[in-house]
Design brief:
GO terms for molecular function: cyclic-guanylate-specific phosphodiesterase activity. About 35% of the residues lie in helices and about 20% in strands. It is of the alpha/beta class.
């Protein structure tokens, strides 16, 4: 049988740089527990994401996207405490040429380290202009077929906005931090976020509030009905390890000690 493939599998310049991942927790206040972690690109010497992403161009975008998935899964399999903890991976829709072919490296990595498909969530950012919305829809369908979940990142900040949500319903939307900043003091932001949250829930889409930095923002968003949170209020990303997480559930200001060991 001929394998499904695409030009991206055959071409592209090999990566000339190394990188690792930092992990940033997403907390579920209903359970007063860590729900999962987002994998964020970092340099092996602690360089920020911008420095690494600045090395990515049209010649190596495909290989970088594939390498990020594999690196995140390998590190998560060594660090995560159980098989219920979710791993959120950012991906570049415009780097996925043929969904069925381009998911192979992810499937192989997950099988090799025993990482469950249901633990993996793929985020695509609204800030990256979608060249072909139908192509993104095909990606989502293919990923769901394998048991992965999907999310729109930076929702409310980019090119497509509500149009993406109308075109296809991901499993999650992550509200953009600029929309949430200072929401406790902004009636307009509260109305907008409450409306988006209600609309998403009616569509069967869960909402994650990201970039939360103050207790006032957190309490306002929790009052709106949001249960999943990510931001510096809870923890900062930790490179190749899991950070300690500050919780605000039934035991206020309780700190959960994360895994301090470094990945080999």
């Amino acid at each position: 049988m001929t394998k499904v493939g695409c030009q991206g599998c055959k071409d592209g310049t090999p990566l000339t740089f190394d990188f690792t991942m930092a992990f940033h927790p997403i907390v579920d206040v209903r359970r007063d527990a860590v729900w999962g972690y987002e994998a964020l690109v970092r340099g092996v010497q602690g360089e920020g994401a911008a420095q690494i992403l600045g090395l990515v161009d049209a010649t190596n975008r495909y290989k970088f996207d594939q390498a990020c998935r594999v690196k995140a899964i390998e590190l998560a399999s060594a660090l995560f405490p159980d098989d219920e903890t979710r791993l959120s991976i950012n991906f570049m829709p415009n780097a996925v040429y043929e969904p069925a072919a381009c998911i192979r490296a992810t499937l192989e990595a997950a099988q090799r380290v025993g990482f469950q498909h249901r633990q993996i969530m793929f985020e695509f950012t609204e800030n990256e202009k979608m060249v072909d919305v139908d192509h993104v829809r095909r990606i989502i369908i293919e990923y769901r077929r394998h048991g992965f979940s999907t999310a729109i990142d930076d929702f409310g900040a980019g090119y497509a906005g509500l149009g993406l949500l109308a075109s296809f319903q991901p499993d999650f939307v992550k509200l953009d931090m600029d929309l949430l900043r200072g929401i406790d003091a902004s009636p307009a932001r509260r109305v907008i976020v409450a409306g988006v949250t209600q609309m998403a829930q009616a569509l069967g889409v869960s909402v994650i509030a990201e970039g939360v930095e103050t207790e006032a923002e957190f309490e306002t968003l929790r009052g709106i009905g949001i249960a999943l949170f990510q931001g510096y209020l809870f923890a900062k990303p930790a490179v190749a390890s899991l950070p300690a997480v500050r919780m605000f559930g039934y035991e206020p200001e309780r700190v959960l000690e994360g895994c301090a060991s470094q990945a080999a």
